[in-house]
Amino acid sequence: MARSSFQSPKGIRDVLPEEQPYWHRVEETIRKIVRLYGYERLDLPVFEETALYRRGVGEGTDIVEKEMYTFLDRSEKSFTLRPEFTAGVMRAYIEHGLAQRPRPFKVWSLGPVFRYERPQAGRYRQHTQFNVEALGEIDPALDFEIMSVAYHLYSDLGFRNLNFQINSIGCPECRPGFLKQLTAYYAGRKDDICEDCRKRLDVNPLRLLDCKVPACQPVIESAPRISGVLCDECRDHFARLRTYLDNAGRPYVINHRLVRGLDYYTKTVFEVWAEGIGAQNAVCGGGRYDGLAEAVGGVPTPAVGFASGIERIVLTMQSQDGAPPAPPHPAVFLVMQVPQAGEQVVSLLAELRAAGVDAMMAFGGRSMKAQMREANKRNAEYVVIIGERELADGTVTVKYMDAEGQETIARDSLIGFIRARLHE
Ligand code: HAM
Questions:
Q1: Predicted confidence (pLDDT) per residue in 158-198, tens digit
Q2: Which ligand 1 atom is nearest residue 87's CA?
Q3: Which CATH entry fits the domain spanning 332-423: 3.40.50.800, 3.50.50.60, 3.40.50.300, 2.160.20.60?
Q4: Ligand 1 centre and the CA of 307: distance in Å?
């Protein structure tokens, strides 16, 4: 039976033209900042072998357990639509021998990411990430640089009350000791915590700390803190990062509960929370992942990075008072007063565009009034009218849309005339 209509898949949205000026502004700012910080573009496939994410992101994570779009291709091989970029960046780094390049290897990507999540404001099943990674260095100055890329982006976009949540979640040296303390503490409190936390206790105890269920909050409050058991290297690394942040006057708070939802993190983790994007208020998240390279079959490679969802950036921009970015509008709208002017209008349109002047016309042989209405709706700066008189004299009439008056000029001088005015 034929379906009468279709809708986009649940949790997946269209970005209509009226929202595009925001996206354009974000992308422009991203391009400026990655150039400033020396990051090169890296484009990756939209799907990878499922095992890459299982090993990279981690078996016990929500992403791998519940959220991946996994499918068998026609040769029965299992692939997964990328639920994030980092594992793919590491796969490409190892596969192409990119460790030979100057270190750190600094790259950014932009594109869709897929997670089967429960849709709500700011949380979608397809979202778009701006992802930034720096591979090959353990220096905390690089953690600072990565956080600076995010800071710079959001300040340029005019975000208010910008604040970083930061934490260090240790390394394979010190974390096991902390997890022992944590599980011992929770073992005596199984009755006071939610069902999910009882599972986390076995599968992924670190994530006990970021449970949002009200009943678990007092338990988390009194839980042991990882800062108390960091090894010397992790403690020193975190202290140096904080010194860089302090020296730069960057706003941050140390959040002992920040652990992030992906397994590969070591040492630094951070998020930026923003107002106006619903309950899902992390506009970006990232950190260091010094063990990921080995987990996916490479040699030890320290690395750090972050990703930010463009949809959440746009929601934040929309929730702040600033004027929205101006929608695009043509410099010139061509109007034919009589049907015989049609050929001239089509030629002139091509000439204007070839000269770099953005121009439009009304299609479909509409009345003069309807064409003028469209010029108004499209917010054109100038309307250029060709009627019988203009056809006969080789002229055009230019009408200023934001002021009174019009003037008739030689057709051949139109491009110079418009260009001169656009540069005023
Ligand atoms: P993540 O925290 O899972 O980290 O996602 C990064 C950002 O993507 C979030 O802060 C949020 O802005 C956006 N985001 C995530 N899920 C959704 C969703 N369902 N709907 C809308 N936006 C969403 C990562 O993906 C790591 N790979 C980041 C990273 C890079 N760590 C090191 N390098």
A1: 998 899 999 999 999 999 999 999 999 999 999 999 999 99
A2: 27
A3: 3.40.50.800
A4: 5
